[in-house]
Amino acid sequence: MKLNIISKQRKKETLKNLKEFRKAFRTNFRKNKIYKMIEKMPLNLNKYLTKYSTGGIIKKYPEDFIVEEITEDGIVLEVGKEIGFKDEENWNGSFIHFTLEKKNWNTLDAIREIAKQTKSKRKNFGFAGTKDKFAITTQRVGCFGVSIEDLKKVNIPNITLRDFQKTNKKLKIGCLWGNRFTIKVRDVEVDKSELDNILKELSKLKYVLNYFGIQRFGSVRPITHVVGKFIVQRDFESAFYAYCGTPLPYDGEKSKEARSLVDEGKFKEALKIYPRIFYYEKRMIKYYLKHRDYKKSFNVLPPQLKSMFVNAYQSYLFNEMINERYKYGFEPLEGDILKDGLPTGALIGYNSKFADGIQGEIERDILEREGIKLEDFKIKGFGNFFGDRRPLIARIYDLEYRIDDDGYVLRFKLEKGTYATSVLREFIDKKINI
């Protein structure tokens, strides 16, 4: 009898040890896979059009980086300025548009807070494009089911709402011409005697490489494209842990601790110490705890954020195309698909049309190298990513500079979808192998 009890206990212990071994093996396998993918996919913005550089830093203060949206009608939403948009004469009660001016807020968090104060829902608000967080920015926002009176009562630090307008038009992503940037560059690394000559040369730039900037991939944790690749591969488990877990060197201490707990499957403990700013990670973890479904946990995210992962992967592939095309130059070549006279590259999606000639070869080679197919971008239960074409270079408008005591100020305009970092990198980055 005693021997049977001992035998059963040993069997239980063996099964428990085996279960723990399998769990540890699976955890380590997944972690290694994620970190190897991150190592394999560093940000690929490494080509330049000029050999000049001033060095320096940006965004020492939010006031150093001003982004003013330019509407489809060409109106610049100037910081601190009332414009006076006219109400629609036959307003049917559908939509209210207003200008959002914010400092040190990202667009999604600002709108979430506005929705909370107006007792509305985040999904009742729309915007033409996201704006930088550590900056002063302006943009139009649209909403329905919210009164102008309630919007005027909104009181949030570093957020101002103005220029309320009654309209029948829904504000959608892409409903803008572009942005005007006013950017202070500090701590330049050249003598003042050289600075003016270098800036004169750089200000001759008419085009820049149309890279997707670091914001597309995550300014603090630049791995959004890695999460996107896992999603395209239908590996939602790795995508979940890459986004909610996976501590990285540039994470804060509390964030690292919480992410390590997530990796170990200790979700409840992670939720207790996860910093408040990681609102979306915490929502996903709570959903997973309740439903045990990695894929569906992404459905708690706002549509723009949910799409951002695959969009970031598409952007990563596009940046690769710029790097490959760099060898051949950016004058139109035989087989190119042009847009406004500029050669384009594929933003790869399920309905992508590839160019012919050299550019077509580049696009097909990248697809093959990644081991993916166009139909992989049709993701059942997650989203369909159509694909598009985007110019490989982008025009700069009204570029000017002003030298002051502690650096210089740049001002320029870019069309929608073009990143200010594409211009700034030509001015600031140290250039190798030009």
Give the structure's gist in a few sentences:
With 434 residues, the chain is α+β, with helices and mostly antiparallel strands. The chain has a domain at 65-178: Alpha-Beta Plaits (2-Layer Sandwich). 38% of the residues lie in helices and 19% in strands.
Question: What topology does this entry show?
Answer:
Layout: H1 2-40, E1 65-70, E2 95-103, H2 107-117, E3 125-127, E4 136-143, H3 148-152, E5 159-167, E6 178-186, H4 192-202, E7 207-209, H5 224-232, H6 236-244, H7 253-263, H8 267-273, H9 279-291, H10 294-297, H11 303-325, E8 338-339, E9 342-347, H12 357-370, E10 378-379, E11 383-384, E12 388-391, E13 393-395, E14 397-404, E15 407-415, H13 420-428
Parallel strand pairs: 1-4
Antiparallel strand pairs: 1-6, 2-4, 2-5, 3-4, 6-15, 7-13, 8-9, 9-12, 10-11, 14-15
Helix pairs in contact: 5-6, 5-11, 7-8, 11-12
The residue fraction in helices comes out at: 25-40%
**Element-level helix/strand string:** HEEHEEHEEHEHHHHHHHEEHEEEEEEH
Average residue pLDDT? 93
Q: Please report the first level of CATH classification, the CATH class of the domain at 65-178.
A: Alpha Beta
Question: End-to-end span in angstroms?
Answer: 82 Å
Portion of residues in beta strands equals 15-25%
CATH architecture of the domain at 65-178: 2-Layer Sandwich
Low-confidence stretches: none
Shape: globular
Radius of gyration: 25 Å
Structure notes:
- By secondary structure, this protein is α+β, with helices and mostly antiparallel strands.
- It has 13 helices and 15 strands.
- It has a domain of 114 residues: Alpha-Beta Plaits (2-Layer Sandwich).
- Helix 5 packs antiparallel against helix 6, helix 5 packs across helix 11 and helix 7 runs antiparallel to helix 8.
- The protein is globular, with a radius of gyration of 25 Å.
